[in-house]
Amino acid sequence: MQIDDSRPIWAQLVDEFRRRIVAGEWPAGARVPSVRELALDLGVNPNTVQKALGEIDRLGLTATERTAGRFVTADDGTVAGGRAALAESAADRFAAEAHGIGMTLVEATELLSTRWATHGYAAPAAPHDMTGKEAQ
Questions:
Q1: SS3 of 125, please?
Q2: What is the dihedral of CA 107, 112, 116, 117, to 10 degrees?
Q3: How far apart are CA 53 and CA 34, in angstroms?
């Protein structure tokens, strides 16, 4: 993870931890690494990690069990909502950049489709809404 000096570190950690959960790197029901482990791995202050994990708890993506530690939620809807929020944020950044350089919606959509294929990402078998459910 690259630290960006223009944003608070704890906020960047929140984004990174959300990404790990929605991408399945921290699967549903899995124990989240301890504050100390994460701080050492990321090279940041444990208090900063604790603040970020507190926000992840508040978002409902994890829950702390008194003596057992912190665990990723098993609620698929909560994880899908987190995925949608991250995707919307990325899409907003892309749309603003594309618009800012004078691209049309058609050009931006074609570019995204081309880049998707270039990276070898598979197209879904059926359209889905942002919660992961098949579109009607």
A1: coil
A2: 0
A3: 10
Does the pLDDT of residue 134 top 80, yes or no? no
Calculate what percentage of the chain has a pLDDT beyond 90.
73
Tokens of 7: 């944003």
25 is written with which tokens? 């790197």
DSSP string, 21-58: HHTTSS-TTPBPPPHHHHHHHHTS-HHHHHHHHHHHHH
Smallest CA-to-CA distance from 19 within 116, 86, 119 is with: 86
Distance of CA 53 to the CA centre of its chain: 14
Residues 74-123 have pLDDT tens digits of 999 999 999 999 899 999 999 999 999 999 999 999 999 999 889 988 77
Instruction: Looking at 61-104, list the stretches that DSSP marks H as alpha helix, in order from N- to C-terminal side.
Output: 76-100
Tokens of 133: 């459910």
Q: Scanning the structure block, which residue is given the tokens 């059926």? A: 126
